[in-house]
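queue> holo job accepted (MU-OXO-diiron)
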Amino acid sequence: GFGQGGGKLRFTAIAPVERTVDEVTVPAGYTWEPIIRWGDPLFRKTPDFDIENQTARAQAGQFGYNNDYLNILADKGSTRSGVLVANHEYTNEDLMFDPAWMDDDHVDEARRIAMAAHGLSVVELRRKKAGTKWEYVRGGARNRRITATTVFAVDGPAAGSDLLKTKDDPTGKKVLGTLNNCAGGTTPWGTVLSGEENFNQYFQGTATGSPEDSRYGISAGPTERGWELTDPRFSAQNAGYENEVNRFGWIIEVDPQDPSSTPVKHTALGRFKHEGANVRVAADGRVVSYSGDDERFDYVYKFISRDKYKPGNKKHNMTLLSAGDLYVAQFSGDSPASEIDGSGTLPADGAFDGTGTWLPLVVDGESKVAGMSVEEVLVYTRLAADKAGATKMDRPEDVEPHPTTGKLYIALTNNTDRGKANKKAGADEANPRAGTTSATSNRDGHVIELTETGNDATALTFGWNILLLCGDPKAPASKLYFSGYPAEKVSPIACPDNLAFDSKGNLWISTDGQPGTIGYCDALHKVTLEGPDRGRVEQFLAVPAGAETCGPVIHDRDDSVFVAVQHPGDGGTYAEPTSLFPDYVAGRNRVRRGQAYAPRPSVVQVFSSRANSGAGRSRGAR
Ligand code: FEO
Ligand code: CA
Ligand code: CA
Ligand code: CA
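queue> job finished
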């Protein structure tokens, strides 16, 4: 989305919003509207959404659930047409289905609806003029749904490996579906990358288990969703499906301009709980993809392509993530370990900072990990990185290179286990908060700024510093740090998750977890990176009760901000919803066609109320 903005976004930071408030709260002078909601039909023949008469067939043609990654891609040379790409991380059956309907006669259909509500959506957009609200085009030529049953090609060194073969796919090169797609990135060649994150929860492991299953959180018991009862491939205890789980946990690539293209799973980037992936083109033309593994004490990875980027040659560029080298980050602090006491207090040199090394896992087609083949390193990447000695981080979420400076920003969302007895690690300079209780541990997360040596994306060493130690300055559980900016002047911020940049190079951070930590609705914040205000955090919006803020897209030249509002009403039930966002229809007997007495994950556009007189909703509009 970078490059379409222009520094026009002027706003006064909003106050933090109490966590029960079921509103999208935006700054004065702005208004908001949903562009597309869970259940909105993508195709002409798809039925309108009807929450009381859902079918898997209808859902497969409707916008999916729990939108996370988002981009708004204007067509080249146009301000009035484009495509929206969003993924659908997971489903919340407690909010989607009437429990009375979920009986033995309907449970299989409910599971198939949930499968169809996962994946990705590509939807065409149009509008009358720049600066106004986009509308989605039902029946748009590029509209597409990808679900848990869509055919994917597998490429890279592990494609065709015995570790990926099943009785349905003896080639090990053709997988049905994508699951738990969290964050992502748009490549310089216009495709979308998306991370398969907590895929383990969909699969029942073998009865005996294995070190690999255990490292990936795959357990022998029945899954909560019970998909293995509807489709046998979801249990490794069904003969022939032992490897099905190995076919998930990858970065996928989708071409949103070509609805007939086959999406790809890239094994060269390794298999773990990929939050997402973001690409930077190096000075020599190779491309570098960065990715975080979102688990407590897991790692940050970097892939360097073998081949070079060719501007304008999408077909060639779509092969770049198929071959190259894979590395994992090791961070070293420059202050004495005795000064890193776990409280978040700055060491004597005044900074949490140091140097680091990208440790090799696969280089020039050869494994660099003793006792593991290339295929094993790529399929069991977490175990390879353990052996390599990577630094255990506080849940790496989005990892994004800055579009002009090249510096890498790493959101570390939180880790309340660091420093606890019998857990994997205590404080280090890159993860300096560790406590024995959740209040004193790294409850609120932090953000690291990483500079590749020589600002060369292909460098194998780097420098780093902590940009923010997050929290609520009015009620800090532990020490906070905003790169020296006065803490009393920033908006409270906790649990950084997704990152974006505006046209002036400011960092934008969306949060996932503020309600359960600092007590406010999740938010979108702008962070100034350069000049005297470096470290200044200003809250732009808040999402409704129970929701997390995802996929921020900042089109400041167009006076617009887009967010994916994920899991509104989380914690409520179908009968007693705690959010009615965005339809705000109270009472089932008043439900109109295409609306719902239920929260609906939706993509929202926030735009200037000046440019859209009469349109949109002001704060609190119902
Ligand atoms: Fe799905 Fe790491 O958040
Ligand atoms: Ca230091
Ligand atoms: Ca996330
Ligand atoms: Ca998260």
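queue> Confidence is low (pLDDT under 50) at residues 1-6.
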